[in-house]
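Q: I'm writing up a methods section and want to include an example of the input and output format. Could you take the sequence below and give the corresponding predicted structure tokens, formatted cleanly so I can copy it straight into the document?
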Amino acid sequence: MSADPKSADPTPAPRADDLAAARRVLNIEAAALGALSGALDANFGRAVEALLAAKGRVIVSGMGKSGHVGAKIAATFASTGTPAQFVHPGEASHGDLGMIGAEDAVLMLSNSGETRELADMILHTRRRKIPLIGIASRPNSTLLKAADVALVLPPAEEACPMGLAPTTSTTMTLALGDALAVALMERRGFNREQYKDFHPGGSLGAALMSVADLMHIGPDMPLVGEGATVDEAVRVISDKRFGCAGIVAPDGRLAGILTDGDMRRLFGENLSGKPVGAVMTRNPKTVAADLRAADALAFLNRAQITALFVIDAEGRPVGLLHIHDCLKAGLAA
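A: Here is the clean output for your methods example:
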């Protein structure tokens, strides 16, 4: 019986020449990045200082492929604590020069350094004494001679077999932009909490959340005193709907926990009027408010429980985290 052609794997095996081309490109670009790292000098530090000193925004600009790279660099700056925006040089010549203020700094990209569309922006920065950092491969180019700080890309072959399409040069420019962004992050002391503020959406925002971002606090917490009766604790479990109640000692510390599971195990015993402290589970599992929510979710899964009380340094309950809160926030179970 012949095989059904529709059931055959439609994915072709990779051709040897395709893999060879891919490896050639990656090896060429990796070598260029190594050369770039070795070529960095004091001008890199001067560029960082100029960007840090800007009281306004970092304006990034470039034409063609350099423009696409520039837009990404501007986005990286903006998301890591350095206010930035991309200004297209063509639009700048038709009114968008007004976006560049006296307190800004300009980062301009051009592999050749002779891109004619950049001329008006270069002249604008020179007239208004706006700091200009240039990235190009030709030290004697118009851009780098005009710039206050020149970052020179080392000689490197384009990965394109014709040596024409911007490939290696744009990779080096992009990597140099990332290097500037990270150096600025470190100089500014930009931290995880600030990064989270700039990335509230999607899986990245969820991954950066802490327990404090998701926990239930104040009157939402299911708490009873250690002297309360089991009946009172059960009412709190039922009212709050977290499947548990925290038992608080007279000094305010979390003394124990009573869960739905505990009640099932105690089914049949006469617990009416009995102090909850006599049947609670002592030393329950807890977490701190500054723990990453993703780590707390992993803890819940390992312990095979659905809720955790959040305690402060003195052991007092300050919140409750439920597994459903983690899942609603987009964290993977």
